[in-house]
């Protein structure tokens, strides 16, 4: 039986717009790639997170080292020179370019307080983490951070509140359900489930590992449960198991299903009630980097193969007879609905804003494509491409009328949808000394009027920064405001001489 037929024959995760989706980051190149190792800018070969896509002829999913633990020396050294960012070809400027990869676009402000009301901007920086930050999630005033030190730390009011540790595998993705179960995706291909102790909210206990051992044992007995593995180290594997890193996680809108995307190119569906894998989909021809859900059951996946695909969730009919009833009850099937984009660049991150009816996809060239609900549900036509970064977009998150994009250029762009259907780059948040790998956002509890957000940004500089941003661009101090940048459906417009033209607001 084909893997994609099992079980039926990365915005807003869990129906909310409060979690970063995430992008699970970019896959590593195949081990036979020698181009990266000959690059003089490479500082280390122990870990590389942002390489180029595989060639179309590659049949193996991205390889990875099984040991990503930070050494004592690495733990003590927080210099950006040790970051995997230095190994990325997207960080290399062309010989003809004199622009800095970390600088803002012409006309853009390099501060956060000039364009936004007072009380916004950088609030603080959390630097307790021992390793590079790969994942963040926020809920109810608590911030969860995951790193390559295998630690998951919990922060409250910018102070360390609690922490727990996995036995293996760096933490590439975190998602939290409304019942406060924490799901973490790891480099070793496993998903771990945690719950807060009812006796002590600072204590987190692991309550499961996906796939469950008993499910693996049961599946391994039946030869029909084995499928061809899409990784060179495994010729075959049971279909319920990821054979490569889990790069992204997302909950369904009704919180009944957990979706996991992997470098093994599959999308797996887990039933939250009993933590069983109910479906595996051969989703892409290369690593799955992001997954988000929204728009009444649609699931969107972004891949290093350059595509964004939409999948429609279908409930399987309940069996009428007793035979097979227990096996079939509660299963779903996901059918391909539309392919939104096919491009040469890897799709690195996805975010969805259900309230605004918009979806965004970040790419390895720094562009951000967007679609409105009509496009994702029917024709698949792209509304436009936002260009505010010079190198890869690594993460996206949406809240209210704003979109936040983190990049390998170490910056965060703040975008707002304007009345004309375009997007305005309100500001560029700077301060990280390494690539911005992950983002999370939640409403500012101190803002009585609403419209202000707290943004958490995790970076390969081993820090998490906390920002506050208001949706209004009015200056409370009355100071003159720098011009904002506006992009139409084709990106930044240009005059007759080819120079960029920006609309002033």
Explain this structure.
With 505 residues, the protein is mainly beta. It has a single domain, classed as Methylamine Dehydrogenase, Chain H (7 Propeller). It has helices spanning 72-76, 213-221, 325-328, 373-379; strands at residues 121-126, 133-139, 142-147, 151-156, 159-165, 171-176, 181-186, 191-196, 204-210, 226-231, 234-238, 246-251, 257-262, 266-271, 276-282, 288-294, 298-303, 307-315, 332-342, 347-353, 358-363, 367-372, 384-387, 393-399, 402-407, 412-417, 423-429, 436-443, 452-459, 464-470, 485-487, 493-494, 500-501. Strands 24-25-26-27-31 form a five-stranded antiparallel sheet, with no helix packed on it. It is globular and about 60 Å long. Mean pLDDT is 73; it is low at 1-22, 24-115, 322-329 and 474-505.
Question: Whole-Å distance between the termini?
Answer: 58 Å
Name the helicity range: under 10%
CATH superfamily: YVTN repeat-like/Quinoprotein amine dehydrogenase
Work out the count of structural domains.
1
Query: What coarse outline follows from CA principal-axis ratios?
Result: globular
**Roughly what fraction of the amino acids lie in strands?**
35-45%
CATH class membership: Mainly Beta
- The helix/strand class is mainly beta
CATH fold descriptor: Methylamine Dehydrogenase, Chain H
Query: Could you say what the CATH architecture is?
Result: 7 Propeller
The major pleated sheet works out as: 5 strands, antiparallel
Q: Helix count?
A: 4
Low-confidence stretches: 1-22, 24-115, 322-329, 474-505
Question: Nearest-angstrom radius of gyration?
Answer: 22 Å
Quaternary form: single chain
- The counted number of beta strands is 33
Biased composition (Low complexity): 94-109
Keywords: Repeat, WD repeat
Region (Disordered): 1-116, 475-505
Biased composition (Basic and acidic residues): 494-505
